[in-house]
UniProtKB/TrEMBL annotation:
<dbReference type="InterPro" id="IPR036390">
    <property type="entry name" value="WH_DNA-bd_sf"/>
</dbReference>
<dbReference type="Pfam" id="PF01614">
    <property type="entry name" value="IclR_C"/>
</dbReference>
<keyword id="KW-0238">DNA-binding</keyword>
<dbReference type="InterPro" id="IPR014757">
    <property type="entry name" value="Tscrpt_reg_IclR_C"/>
</dbReference>
<protein>
    <recommendedName>
        <fullName>IclR family transcriptional regulator</fullName>
    </recommendedName>
</protein>
<dbReference type="InterPro" id="IPR005471">
    <property type="entry name" value="Tscrpt_reg_IclR_N"/>
</dbReference>
<dbReference type="InterPro" id="IPR050707">
    <property type="entry name" value="HTH_MetabolicPath_Reg"/>
</dbReference>
<feature type="domain" description="IclR-ED">
    <location>
        <begin position="66"/>
        <end position="263"/>
    </location>
</feature>
<keyword id="KW-0805">Transcription regulation</keyword>
<keyword id="KW-0804">Transcription</keyword>
<dbReference type="InterPro" id="IPR036388">
    <property type="entry name" value="WH-like_DNA-bd_sf"/>
</dbReference>
<dbReference type="InterPro" id="IPR029016">
    <property type="entry name" value="GAF-like_dom_sf"/>
</dbReference>
<feature type="domain" description="HTH iclR-type">
    <location>
        <begin position="4"/>
        <end position="65"/>
    </location>
</feature>
<dbReference type="Pfam" id="PF09339">
    <property type="entry name" value="HTH_IclR"/>
</dbReference>
Length: 272
């Protein structure tokens, strides 16, 4: 029986897509041998049909998480990034500065989507999958301030068994953390520690990405599904202005992401 060539090529591309690491256009071209113009048309068709998505954070194509027969925990977390992408880009266009969406995994915050690559401003770019320190970063503090007592206790238990490498993180754990989290809840957002350079293993005098950040939780039914930050170069000293002008935008975007993620989860359960 004669096959449909266009459909066969589309299925070949879909099989080649890796849902977590993703594939670039060049990698797909090498894997399939399909000319790049044809590949772009196939990928555009797969995206419009809901079979694939292209992350704004790294430009790689991935299968939709909903297509995975038995999604694991990593796939479920990545789905937040898949859902968040258009919201991040809309926020960046509105406020100029880029954002990351992060989820809690194995006692770190992990980037699942980011709009930094789309920004033409001078900010450090971290890849999807980058793991962020918990006690000094704005996303980590936002998670710890608004997560459940049990989730917070689990993080602290792990930190007791595996003390942070950074001196400042150990200082915060030794006594400052409760007051920091109380202030975060009172203000409605978390701030990056001024002595944190963005690297969870190297001190600020060795590794400094030069950014500052605030972060808020994306919550549904009292549970933190993710956290979302807004970042800018520290040298500009913009924190007060950004909080005044854009905190509400950040909070509204985080709420929209949480609502969309909750709706997607409800739809998924209804079809199981």
């Amino acid at each position: 029986m004669k096959t449909i060539d266009a459909l066969a090529r589309g299925l070949e591309v879909l099989r080649s897509l890796e849902e977590r690491r993703g594939q670039s256009l060049a990698e797909l071209h090498r894997a399939t041998g399909i000319p790049k113009p044809s590949l772009l048309r196939i990928l555009d068709t797969l995206e419009q049909g809901g079979f694939a998505w292209r992350a704004i954070g790294d430009g790689r194509y991935r299968r939709r998480v909903s297509l995975i027969f038995r999604p694991g925990i990593d796939d479920e977390l990545l789905r937040i990034g898949e859902i968040a992408a258009p919201f991040l880009e809309a926020l960046r266009r509105k406020v100029i500065w880029p954002s990351d969406v992060l989820v809690h995994r194995n006692f770190r915050m992990e980037i699942v989507e980011t709009s930094r690559r789309q920004s033409h401003l001078n900010v450090a770019v971290y890849a999807i999958g980058f793991r962020v320190e918990m006690f000094l970063s704005a996303p980590g503090r936002a998670y710890l301030a608004f997560c459940s007592d049990a989730e917070r206790a689990a993080v602290l238990t792990d930190a007791a068994a595996n003390p942070p490498l950074l001196v400042r993180a150990r200082q915060v754990l030794a006594g400052e953390l409760p007051a920091i989290l109380d202030e975060t809840r009172r203000l409605g957002y978390a701030s990056r520690d001024p002595l944190f350079g963005g690297d969870g293993e190297k001190e600020m005098n060795v590794s400094d990405d030069g950014i500052d950040a605030i972060a808020v939780p994306a919550m549904h039914d009292g549970k933190v599904l993710a956290t979302m930050n807004l970042v800018w170069p520290r040298k500009y000293r913009l924190k007060a202005q950004i909080v005044r002008n854009h905190l509400a935008d950040l909070q509204e975007t985080a709420a929209a992401i949480a609502a969309a993620a909750a709706e997607a989860e409800t739809e998924k359960r209804s079809t199981e």
